[in-house]
Amino acid sequence: EPEVTQTPSHQVTQMGQEVILRCVPISNHLYFYWYRQILGQKVEFLVSFYNNEISEKSEIFDDQFSVERPDGSNFTLKIRSTKLEDSAMYFCASSAGTSGNNEQFFGPGTRLTVL
Amino acid sequence: GQNIDQPTEMTATEGAIVQINCTYQTSGFNGLFWYQQHAGEAPTFLSYNVLDGLEEKGRFSSFLSRSKGYSYLLLKELQMKDSASYLCAVRANDYKLSFGAGTTVTVRA
Predict the structure, then answer these.
(1) How would you write the pLDDT of chain A (115 residues) with one tens digit per residue?
(2) DSSP structure class, residue A103
(3) Which of B41, B95, B98 to mutate to test the interface with A (most CBs of A within 10 A)?
(4) Residue B56 and residue B70: Cα distance in Å, rounded?
(5) Minimum Cα–Cα distance from B94: chain A residue
């Protein structure tokens, strides 16, 4: 069964450093998303991406964040200068469509720890 | 803004039935999803409702009333492996899901 994959599973970084989180969405999906979940809190939407551009972003997704689809398979989230409060689980998701029962499939997540 | 409320915790006995309620107030509505999330893992899709009524899928059923901004997830014949967090999520527009805080269900033997 096709699945979303993410690397690395765990990333530890120093405050102020740049990190890139990588995702491989399901191959025939067209819509890609990033969410984050701070420990013990709810899943929060960050950004959606379609046709090589951002479709929507939340207030969390400020100038420190960027997304890219560098090739036909990868989808990345970059945080330019990490802060302590960026520590969270980051989930990538993809979907075939945005209406009807086109659910979003979530990857296993990258746990980001900022020291 | 989006406001999605669900109980924090529920406990039930193996073999029993549990109903998890979700109320929502969102700026738009394009479907309601229920996801299951085991600790430290990704959310996995359980069910989808966009029209009023009940959708049944094996041991899991989900109900929606759009006029009341209300949904529930019904888990029947509970098994120990059903111990998890259950997330109510509303798709208010085309792109993003807005999640509730999740209901942690503990199944006891």
Answers:
(1) 889 999 999 999 999 999 999 999 999 999 999 999 999 999 999 999 999 999 999 999 999 999 999 888 899 999 999 999 999 999 999 999 888 888 999 999 999 999 9
(2) P
(3) B95
(4) 17
(5) A98
